[in-house]
What we know:
The protein is α+β, with helices and mostly antiparallel strands.
Amino acid sequence: MRLRTLLVPLLALLLTLVAAPPGSAHPARSQNAGYLFVYFTGEGTADGEQIRYALSRGDDPLHWRELNGGRPVLTSTLGEKGLRDPFVIRSPQGDRFYLIATDLRMYRNSSGSWDQVQRHGSKSVMVWESTDLVHWTDQRLVKVAPDTAGNTWAPEAYWDSRLREYVVFWASKLYAADDPDHTGSTYNRMLYATTKDFRTFSAPRVWNDPGYSVIDSTVIKDRGTYYRFTKDERDPSSGSPCSKFITAEKSRNLTDTSYGFVADCVGSGGGAPAAGPPRPSADRPPPIRQRAIMSSGIPVRCSDSELYAHMLDILGRLVGFDTTSHKSNLELIHYVQELLAGNGIDSELHWNEARTKANLVATAGPGDGGARGVVWSGHTDVVPVDGQSWSADPFTLRLTQDAAIGRGTADMKGFIACCLAILSRTDHARLTTPVTLMLTYEEEIGCVGARHLVEEMRTWQGRVTGCIVGEPTGLDVVVGHKGKQNHRITFTGEPRHAALAPQLPNPIVAAAPLAGPAGSRNEEFRTEGPHDDRFDIGHSWINIGRIDGGVKPNIVPESCVVDLEIRNIPAHACDDIAADLHGHATGALRDGMRALSDVAEVTVEQLSDTPSFAIEPDHAFVTFVREAFGATEDPCYVPFGTEAGLICGHAGIPTVVCGPGFITEAHTADEFVALDQLRGCLDRLTSLPLG
Length: 691
């Protein structure tokens, strides 16, 4: 156990803490007053194990002023009635603080001896909430450790934007399940649980167990990598040269149970053993040498907070361009050209035939020999807002505490904004692998723009590492999706008086039997396959979505239109399914109509084609992306289509789909993407080891 400091950047806190009366307004957020030091003083005095505050003298964490006359600010009346190891975390929305602490009092062995409190100590953490760090809720005692634990020491927390939960971690000695009295010999290891509200926690899991006692972990995140600093609690008599010093490790995934080694014996050259891990401030960059070791991602010439603000500015501009699929995207494309040119990145445009729309390709970094490196791909068009009930202008970005709202924010201008923010701030002279941005038009109506780029992309063979398509997947890495084709079959006859109906072909009657073969094929797909169990619906399907014909009951219909959609698993070609339906319509059904009229006709038209996509989950590029992004869950498969089928299946470029937001949030009124998803996207893209 140790005395532990915590530096939390505060906003105009000094006057608030010193002078604010109860019930006063929250502190102003116009300027920083300093760092808040939340601490306890130890078990030497009766009130030493309660919470105190000190404030730094401006931006100087070496000189402090005690607040509240040095007296406790928070005291405990629950559990062991002592508070040690306080830790404060701010919510990602910035509207709330949580303070957690160890439930333990060692003054005159109030809770027992050091051995006793590690066998029969508290299994809970103490929790408070505040909106201003001055006025706190009543304390609450929340159990987080398992029944096999003997103690719950030094809790800390970190917000995980991937899980969208807080990860709370602490040290516990764990005893055998058949040792309910905890009489055996064991050691401390680090555990964690997750929570959204510090009231309800997941089941605890072991986080760090090197086979000997470790305590007091702390974490800081830098450019998508989590760095964990943990005290080696072995006794110096064990012979370990690192006992009582710090071990540093890293991982792309906060809850990873096997962090990679960085260094041990940290602090051993500086004198006495450490009393807990160092705590870098989130607002102060680590020392230059430390950052050089930590960063192997994309070299961005700004802080994380500046990059995030820059991304939101860009997103506002992108949403402001109405790029509904039937409209031009050139205003947006020219904006992107200018933005990238400002950082020395040239763009190529690939036009549609009418030159009203364009695809954009731009490469940053070493492009010798036409190298394309890692491609970031997104489409610029959005679906219409017609008929939707929006609460405000769809093409004006609105920001709430936790979301960005506007047409295309989820699908997929949020991803494009992240790409542009990074590329416009990247020191591309320091890139060791190129990054190529590819923006397309008319994805929403059949991947038209990407289809026109296929031949160009085929020329990149041998000069491209792979492609990330940033469709909204909740930042999960997707390695497969179904394909989709839309078809229209039109039955045409002669519009005449209904009195002559027995002598004429009826297009509606002729079209109706098309549903029978479609239904039979669907049942065949369901029972006989082919099957692909990677999808929730593991077979292909034909959906007849619209039948439209006729004017009035007293007129023989002139025509009947049948619109249908085919969704196919990757191993089942859409073209084959469509050919069967087309053959039936233009064969037996047309023959039946022509038996009554030579002018009867059946025509077929393919309206769109989004090819299916599949790449092996253990493909080298998939592994590269997952390791860089810190993905621990298995790659997944989704039911919606993307341009990945063209990029991977037709152009031959290894591809994954991964982007911010969720498909359930796309195409809707008040479409939105969570700000945490955008932050996570920036973290992941900048973590790619290309610098």
